[in-house]
Amino acid sequence: MGVSDVETLDGIETIPETFREDAETHKGFMEKALEMAEEALSIGETPVGCVVVANGAIIASGMNDTNRSLNGTRHAELVAISEALKLHPASVFASADLYVTVEPCIMCASILRQYHIKNVFYGCGNERFGGNGSVLSIHSDFGIDPPYASHGGLYRKEAVMLLRRFYIQHNEKAPNPRPKKGRELNTSFEPT
Ligand SMILES: [Zn+2]
């Protein structure tokens, strides 16, 4: 499934009413993040993509780059933060929103908070490493830096499908691939 197949505003009901008024805007930004994730998938990176939006425009984008760079800190969010800082002062984040296909991990959640990001919108939760509520709540726990608002579930299915496609590809390349059953693309979803 490509981003072009995304026609409905999947997951918009998961974000607060006040943000839903700008549904088309959210859709456009998350679709861009999904495109970045798709590109990451095409070059063998874990498919996570994001965009940073300030004053209604994308000022930076990022995708996972840990395999190519052999640098485990090159997560999509940190790549995008670095890109934004090339052209903007750090204060830009205080009025910026991040759209990312997967819930930020604990490392990224912490750095986003230190940069005073305003809002984070994400697709699917990150059950193993999530720092916006799934494992720890770095975005809202007591801390020195101001907390940020986090809204999950926007285009969740599309984000999950990208990850599933990645793990299937990965398994096919493994020296001892799992039986075919484990390589079939699971397209079912639990109700949220
Ligand atoms: Zn991360």
TrEMBL record:
Catalytic activity reported: adenosine(34) in tRNA + H2O + H(+) = inosine(34) in tRNA + NH4(+)
Top EC class of this enzyme: hydrolase
Keyword Plastid: no
Domain CMP/dCMP-type deaminase: 24-136
InterPro entries reported for this sequence: APOBEC/CMP_deaminase_Zn-bd, CMP_dCMP_dom, Cytidine_deaminase-like
Cellular component GO terms held in the UniProt record: cytoplasm; nucleus; tRNA-specific adenosine-34 deaminase complex
GO BP terms: tRNA wobble adenosine to inosine editing
Record keywords: Hydrolase, Metal-binding, tRNA processing, Zinc
Cofactor: Zn(2+)
Gene Ontology molecular function, alphabetical: tRNA-specific adenosine-34 deaminase activity; zinc ion binding
EC nos: 3.5.4.33
Region (Disordered): 172-192
The keyword Zinc is assigned to this record: yes
UniProt xrefs under PROSITE patterns: CYT_DCMP_DEAMINASES_1, CYT_DCMP_DEAMINASES_2
Family: Belongs to the cytidine and deoxycytidylate deaminase family. ADAT2 subfamily.
Annotated protein name in UniProt: tRNA(adenine(34)) deaminase
